[in-house]
Amino acid sequence: RFEKHAEQTPEKTVIEYETGVLRYGEVNRKANALAWELISLGVQPNDRVAIMTTLEAETIIGILGVLKSGAAYVPIDPATPKERIEHILNDAAPKVILTREKTMETEVPFISMNLEDLGTTGKPKGVAVTRGNLDHYLSYADQEYQKEALVDLFY
């Protein structure tokens, strides 16, 4: 969806932030470059890549780049306590961690993202969301919600 939109409207603004704007074409080029970099680092389909950043533009480019590489992304808020981050990283076992933060010490359906869920035990564990499920949800949201209420990223 994003690729098609970027090809059709490369000059349309997709992200506005304090110091400027990013257009669909630029975001797509950066995401493609990131995808190739991840692949060159050995990331393969269904591997997990952690994204730990608070910068909105970088997060969106990171998510798109990870998905384009065939991997799943694991979102991590840098404000999360260190013990929890370590648990997420141990559970998800990402091949690569994308972050601007200081270095921390510490033939199935393609997976799109890995979310943390407390479940019934109260202990967090990863829940894989397949690309098919993500695509199904986006199609549903496209029909169910008013376009003005949806993030422009998906149009």
TrEMBL record:
**What InterPro entries does UniProt report for this protein, alphabetically?**
AMP-dep_synth/lig_dom (IPR000873), ANL_N_sf (IPR042099)
Q: Which Pfam families match?
A: AMP-binding
Alphabetic keyword roster:
Phosphopantetheine, Phosphoprotein
Location of the AMP-dependent synthetase/ligase domain: 2-103
Q: What is the superkingdom listed in this entry's lineage?
A: Eukaryota
Official protein name in the record: AMP-dependent synthetase/ligase domain-containing protein
Give the organism the record lists.
Phytophthora cactorum
Taxonomy of origin reads: Eukaryota, Sar, Stramenopiles, Oomycota, Peronosporomycetes
